[in-house]
Amino acid sequence: MENLLVILLVMMIVAAIMAIHAKDLLSSLIAQGFVGYGLVICFILLRAPDLAIVQIVVETVTLIIMVSVLHDSTRKEIQVPAGKRDIYTYSLSFVLVGLMLYYFNRAIATLNPFGDHALRMSDFYAREAVELSGSTNLIKGVLWDFRALDTFGEATILFAAAAGVMAILRIKGRKE
Amino acid sequence: MTLYLLCFVLFMVGIYGVLTRRNLIKIVISLTIMEFSIFLMLALVGYVSGGQAPLVLDPETPYVQVVDPLPQAMVLTTLVIALATNSMLLTMAIRLYKKYGTFDIRKINELKG
Known about the structure:
The structure holds two protein chains of two kinds. Chain A has helices at 2-21, 25-45, 49-72, 84-108, 122-133, 138-146, 148-169. By secondary structure, chain A is mainly alpha-helical. Chain A has a domain at 119-176. In chain A, helix 2 (25-45) runs antiparallel to helix 3, helix 5 (122-133) packs across helix 6 (138-146) and helix 6 crosses helix 7. Chain B has a single domain (2-47, 67-110), classed as Helix Hairpins (Orthogonal Bundle), CATH 1.10.287. Chains A and B meet through helix 1, helix 2, helix 3, helix 4 and helix 5 of A and helix 1, helix 2 and helix 3 of B.
């Protein structure tokens, strides 16, 4: 299973690079959709059915919104010769990538190897969720019962984002 | 460890896109790719080899080995928030396009007002 995940992840990385370098914005969106649906397969392989379902919905909605944005504007990528500033941004990004790769290597040295995770506080959830929350789905038990305050915060952020979208998309500004 | 490293490479591809692209839509796509890599990282950390999906199929049976439900619940929250922030970014992009007629961030920066 680990080999399958490695193959999927390499394909996702190739698709991500394609999405960033595509000449046409629509094909860039299709490559981004490949990354998203590859993530769905990864979630199914990692035994996370709830995440897979939600990711399918989220990815589809995101693609629809992006295509409608492109429908309202242009799908041409900006074509300009590389200038002095481009050399600066490219070198900055490569320096940042190398620096973060070093620190990430130091950080994952403390993690357990893949598949050898010890359930510490989730052990309590896994044992007691059915009795205490009455939910046979442990994720729903954690989300709606043990950590309901987090879900409340999520709902707040959703409301704030929806209000922001409404405010930005209003055609006419209010006059004093 | 290979999986963790590949996940981080995906994140790095996203950062590279954000820093080097000039098109607003491509910047949003790169941000989405960064989000995906973080979700995958959390799901990978919570995986237990041989574990079941965190569902109790039969409440009468004693405890079975499951994968960690806590990171999965947190990722579920974050997925929805990512959708909200992405749609917000895209509406900002379309408003900027309506005002300036281009997605090029440097041109938008020059055409102030």
